[in-house]
Design a protein that fits this description.
Hda_lid, 43% helix, 228 residues, P-loop_NTPase, Helicase, Ruva Protein, domain 3, alpha/beta, Rossmann fold, 2 domains, Regulatory inactivation of DnaA Hda protein
Amino acid sequence: MSAGVQLPLDLPWRPALGREHFLVAACNASAVALVEAWPHWPAPAACIHGPTGAGKTHLAQVFATRAAAVVLDPAVILGTDPLTLFEGGRAAVIEDADRAGLPEATLFHLLNAARQRGGSLLLTALSPPARWGVHLADLRSRLAALPAEGLCEPDDELMAAVLLKLFSDRGLDVAPGAIGYLLPRMERSFAAARDLVVHADALALREGRAVTVPLLRQLLATPDRADR
């Protein structure tokens, strides 16, 4: 191994997922307000929706902490009586509800169980519930009535803040000008920002360098980098 070259270790890291770490801007303020309105929702269930990496999981974790909610695994749901999941007015989260593979009848029973037991259910999804294209008429009616708020792609100010947060979550200092260099050159999505920071971290560690404009220039010039 060459002197000064470090091998990146696949060490676990935990993103900061508290409410105080969620960056509020015009593109997500209504979804944040919906989560913070609990337990005064107009219905026993609600949905936040938006593109991959927009912050749905972060907001779901904020809700889980706020409501002492359990994040439900679809496999657990299928093997459990829905009424028991909301016993005593419990709260629950189902992430990616539009892609979780739950039978329509099961989701319908979950929504009914939350109402019957006085529980709360937060769904996350890529699109609003009214657009899920379900076939069961009663479920379609329930979903259309859910309070739902969306998150959209960030503007420059929020994207810069997200990049700084992602670097900070990994314990990385970023040189002046590095964020400004990235903004006009990267894909405009939270998912791309997340992947780019992961690869910048690996490159900086492997080469024993700081996260600077030259390092990012090298990263963006790599044909097979995962954020493309």
